[in-house]
Write a structure and sequence with these properties.
280 residues; alpha+beta; Uridine Diphospho-n-acetylenolpyruvylglucosamine Reductase, domain 3; four-stranded mixed sheet; 7 helices; 20 strands; FAD-bd_PCMH_sub1; cell cycle; FAD; oxidoreductase
């Protein structure tokens, strides 16, 4: 376990915005997590930082990274245990190597396996929980336990894990055989073409309201391309907010508020953030 004091968090967010954290702890073995949580002050588990907006002031928090918990373990019967810190694209590559199928629609989604499990990430009608058998978590009592999928509550972009602020340590997946390379290449190609991947961003900013697409609502509200300081509603994909180079935390927050206000005004629909916002 590594403990770093007064740590600059800017490079640990895809948005390239972030202040100085009280501590940054890197957990290198799963059994270190309980000690890290006990040491931490207002602990926050950070995955790859692909969907987390960090305040650019002083952060009176201990950030805990699980990136070193990145193993894959075969369990037999097409079941695979995966550490929370594994980059999700590496899981897709592993699926190809072993002819596993089930999560091809999610190919190209940035982030860690634990991050996607935490909020039930998904795309193209597939959610990560579609292929999950069980999840190993640290609960509110700092106890490590494994919960079967059928005993967990989860819905669109939301899980009981998130609501109770549990920590994902690993997930066990149950795959079928028949990896579909064409789907993977198609999904990755569409992300490259339709998402502003060359600029700092946090992925989809808003969840899709039931029966609607946030991107379409934002366009209809006349907000695509709208700028607030160094932050902008992407001209490539309107559900992405990008950093034009010097965006501040307040720029991004104010832009989110403006987009929500305009969409509410034009459609009557309340947008809900998909990203995680850490204010202090």
């Amino acid at each position: 376990m590594k403990i770093l004091k007064s740590f600059n968090m800017k490079e640990h967010s895809n948005m390239k915005v972030g202040g100085v954290a009280k501590e940054f702890i890197v957990v290198e073995k799963k059994d270190e997590i309980l000690e890290a949580l006990e040491l931490g002050n207002k602990s926050f588990i950070l995955g790859n930082g692909t969907n987390t907006l960090l305040n650019d002031g002083d952060l009176n928090r201990t950030f805990i990274s699980l990136k070193e918990i990145d193993y894959i373990k075969e369990l037999g019967d097409n079941r695979v245990e995966v550490g929370a810190g594994l980059d999700f694209d590496k899981l897709i590559e592993y699926m190809e190597k072993h002819d596993y199928s089930g999560l091809e629609n999610l190919a190209g989604i940035p982030g860690s396996v634990g991050g996607l499990v935490f909020m039930n990430g998904g795309a193209y009608g597939t959610e990560i929980f579609d292929s999950i058998d069980s999840v190993e978590i640290v609960d509110e009592k700092n106890s490590i336990r494994t919960i079967k999928k059928e005993d967990l509550k989860f819905t669109y972009r939301k899980t009981e894990i998130q609501e109770k602020n549990w920590v994902v340590l690993s997930a066990t997946f149950k795959f079928t055989k028949g990896y579909n390379k064409e789907i993977v290449e198609d999904r990755r190609g569409k992300r490259d073409e339709r998402h502003p991947l060359s600029m700092p961003n946090l992925g989809s900013t808003f969840k899709n309201p039931e029966g609607h697409f946030s991107a379409k609502l934002i366009i209809e509200a006349g907000m695509q391309g709208y700028e607030q300081g160094g932050a902008q509603v992407s001209t490539v994909h309107p559900n992405f907010i990008v950093n034009n180079g010097n965006a501040t935390f307040e720029d991004i927050l104010n832009l989110i508020k403006k987009v929500k206000s305009k969409v509410k005004e034009t459609s009557g629909i309340d947008l809900e953030e998909e990203i995680i916002i850490v204010k202090d």
